[in-house]
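As the work plan foresaw, our protein records have gained a structure token line. A representative record is set out beneath this paragraph:
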Amino acid sequence: MPPRRSAAAHDARIEGVFSRVDTMTLEDCPIEPGWVRAGQPHARAATHAMARDGLASTHLWECSAGAFAWRFSVEETVLILDGEVRVTSPGGQVRTLRAGDVGHFPAHTTWLWEVDRHVRKIAFCRREVPWPLRLATRALDRLLERARALRPAGGAWRRPGRDAGMSSSP
């Protein structure tokens, strides 16, 4: 028998997770010392939500002044809430992100982040699924789509042949 989920975990799974960023408790989230290029950036973060399968999560993150090479181990989309940051892509393209801007950072890339004063962001993170599992998932999705086509909305399952007026007896 699987372990019982706590009431809180059950509620979050069904009801969702909702927070105000100004009330979330941020904890120290040190930047790897070898990544720091200038200054003494101090980062803090809080996890807002984690998907049931562990492949997606949402975080609040902020950082003080400094420059660092950030290595993205997961795909990350950010929404800048406050402050600004200059980001330099692996190819050398520089962009400045300010409050209200959205950016996407591919997994397995390293970007230079330069924070002049302060930046605060919401990060939407997604782990990559290995390609064999992606192919299997796509195949399963196609099978489920075909199965759904056999069942009318709100109705019972139809059986090809039998329910189409054909007899299965000789």
In short: Helices lie at 7-15, 131-149.
